[in-house]
Design goal:
It contains 9 helices and 7 strands; from the N terminus they run βαβαβαβααβααβααβ. With about 240 residues, the chain is α/β, with parallel strands linked by helices. Strands 3-2-1-4-5-6-7 form a 7-stranded parallel beta sheet, sandwiched between helices. The chain is globular, with a radius of gyration of 17 Å.
Length: about 240
């Protein structure tokens, strides 16, 4: 059995995705202030508050997850561009600091603290970077899909999305040689049937991590740094990475 730490989107906004991840597991994630956690804990979803602008808070988030979850060996870092696009619709100067903390600094702080902790423990784990992408004005203008009915994201959301992609790709290549660490990169765009079904997306991520957990041989750098399309068949081997 595996427990999961989910970072990137607070309760209750991440509930559907977290419920998909459950799959007989327990989840530890972050929650908004003054939220009644009782209903979530009855489902097996536990949480604490996370100050996204603090490295210390990121470290505390990870330690609390370890002390709460007995079988914590799967980690999901979730960047939901569609969600962020609704929070930062306009590129207003007064939104820049909050946006930087929410979509840039928090992910950098968290991954730095997590990798340090995993290096200390050296327990076999699976780390997944999951992106629910959202198109920019440039992308919709140059898209071959003329049926795209989405309001383009603001510049800061699109920049943050690009930063998350870069973070995921660079981390996957830098740590792929760690024998205790397996990496999954998953990108769900608006053409994917799971795009509007976060519960199904979470369930696919959970099954994919379980499949990686059962591998006898460690993944290659190429496998670790290849973006998967959610919904791809999860097999007993590495064929689903192709």
């Amino acid at each position: 059995m595996s427990d999961i730490l989910l970072a990137g989107k607070d309760l209750p906004d991440c509930l559907e995705f977290a419920e998909g991840l459950l799959n007989t597991k327990k989840i530890f994630t972050c929650a908004k202030k003054d939220l009644d956690l009782s209903p979530f804990e009855s489902e097996g979803i536990y949480s604490c508050q996370w100050n996204r602008s603090s490295a210390i808070s990121s470290r505390s988030f990870i330690i609390k997850a370890e002390t709460t979850m007995q079988e914590l060996n799967q980690y999901v870092i979730y960047f939901d561009s569609m969600y962020f696009a609704s929070k930062f619709e306009l590129d207003k100067t007064e939104n820049v600091s909050v946006a930087l903390d929410t979509m840039f600094a928090s992910y950098q702080f968290f991954i730095n603290e997590l990798l340090l902790r995993l290096e200390q423990r050296k327990d076999p784990v699976v780390l997944s970077f999951v992106l629910r992408s959202y198109p920019s004005k440039f992308e919709t203008l140059h898209s071959s899909n003329k049926n795209v009915n989405l309001v383009p994201s603001s510049n800061i959301v699109n920049a943050a999305q690009s930063a998350f992609i870069s973070l995921a790709e660079n981390i996957s290549t830098l740590v792929a040689d760690k024998p205790y660490l397996s990496i999954i990169l998953a990108k769900c765009d608006h053409t994917n049937e799971m795009y509007n079904d976060e519960k199904a997306l979470g369930n696919w991520v959970s099954q994919t991590m379980d499949s990686v957990n059962t591998q006898k041989s460690h993944q290659s750098v190429k496998q670790a740094s290849t973006w998967l399309k959610p919904g791809a068949k999860v097999s007993s081997g590495f064929s689903f990475f192709k």
